[in-house]
Design brief:
The structure holds 2 protein chains of 2 kinds. By secondary structure, chain A is α+β, with helices and mostly antiparallel strands. Chain A contains 1 helix and 3 strands. Chain A starts with 12 loop residues before the first strand and ends in a 13-residue tail after the last strand. Chain B is mostly helical. The longest helix of chain B is centred in the N-terminal third of the chain and has 25 residues, at about 30-55. The N and C termini of chain B lie far apart (about 40 Å). Classes of the chains: A alpha+beta, B mainly alpha.
């Protein structure tokens, strides 16, 4: 029955999730979610990483992160 | 029908919506959707508790003793009478009915009744994520059947053009009347309701539904804690007695 929902696997992309508990600390990565669009990624991030009382949460498409170097390359 | 009756209707519907969401916490099409179903279920069960807590400050609590024994005394919509068999039913409830309840809550928050203005505001923030979830899945395309049923029940739930919701809107207690609520729901979802045929003469103004019926027995038993008692060890039953 669920196979018709191609978007879940075929169209989905990975988003990195960032959050912080207080204004004084920087945002740090708390995990990732896979979703077909920004709206669903926001809903999934909020549902998945709600174990803390975050004062801020943000998501970024993983493909939009520009890497300078990776482990072993520095 | 009083404002308390309306708040009880929102509470009962959110309780049932929360339970039905939770039933999909291990059946949704992806792990993320499973988690979202569980989280939204918890949100709505929490919202129902806040709403039940508003009844006393509103001055009258319409809940009677029959709620312990009669599933027909609950004020939830027919959409929640049975567990959902298809993901499309989940999506239609998530996008259309959940948003319809949110629009009504928005109407309470922007109305003149202080207890509702204060206590319900936080729900609107949490509901934003339910809306994003539902709208996104709705845009992915689902069968028209569950969507049409959800629209029908949402518009019926807003009430007739000359009913109590319209009166409370005129009095300023609610910020929107039935037409405004429907317009807001359509605006939020970016779509028009399908052509609907509503027989207001057979509509139940207390349960805010057009169809008779009630929630299924196992669900009612779970709500009342009866299912747990069924499986409790004899020693626990003896202690309770």
């Amino acid at each position: 029955m669920t196979s018709k929902y191609k978007r879940v696997s075929g169209d989905a992309v990975e988003y990195e999730v960032f959050a912080r508990k207080t204004r004084g600390e920087p945002l740090h990565q708390v995990g990732s979610v896979v979703a077909p669009d920004d709206d669903l990624a926001m809903a999934y991030a909020r549902a998945t990483y709600d174990e803390e009382r975050w004062c801020e949460m943000a998501i970024v498409r993983k493909e939009d992160v520009i890497e300078l170097w990776q482990p072993g390359e520095a | 029908m009083s404002l308390s009756d309306l708040v009880l209707s929102i509470a009962d519907n959110k309780q049932m919506l929360g339970l039905r969401y939770a039933e999909w916490a291990t059946r949704a099409p992806s792990l993320e959707a499973d988690i979202a179903a569980a989280a939204m279920g918890l949100d709505d069960l929490g919202h129902s508790r806040v709403l039940y807590g508003c009844l006393e400050p509103l001055g009258s609590d319409p809940r009677g003793p029959d709620r312990e024994s009669d599933p027909g005394s609950l004020r939830a919509l027919p959409y929640f009478d049975r567990p959902w068999d298809e993901w499309a039913q989940f999506v239609a409830a998530n996008a259309i009915l959940d948003t319809a309840f949110t629009v009504m809550i928005e109407s309470c928050v922007n109305g003149s009744v202080e207890v509702l203005r204060q206590r319900l505001r936080k729900m609107l923030m949490e509901e934003r994520y339910h809306f994003l979830h539902g709208r996104s899945w709705l845009r992915s395309g689902i069968d028209a059947g569950p969507m049409n049923v959800a629209w029908q029940e949402a518009v019926e739930w807003f009430g007739p053009p000359d009913g109590e919701v319209a009166t409370m809107h005129r009095e300023g207690r609610l910020a929107m009347g039935p037409a405004g609520l429907r317009g807001r729901l359509e605006e939020q979802l970016g779509m028009k309701a399908p052509k609907l045929s509503i027989d207001w003469k057979s509509w139940d103004p207390i349960r805010r539904r057009g169809k008779p019926g009630a929630v299924d027995e196992p669900t009612f038993g779970m709500l009342r804690g009866l299912e747990e008692k069924k499986y409790a060890p004899p020693s626990a039953a003896a202690k309770q007695a």
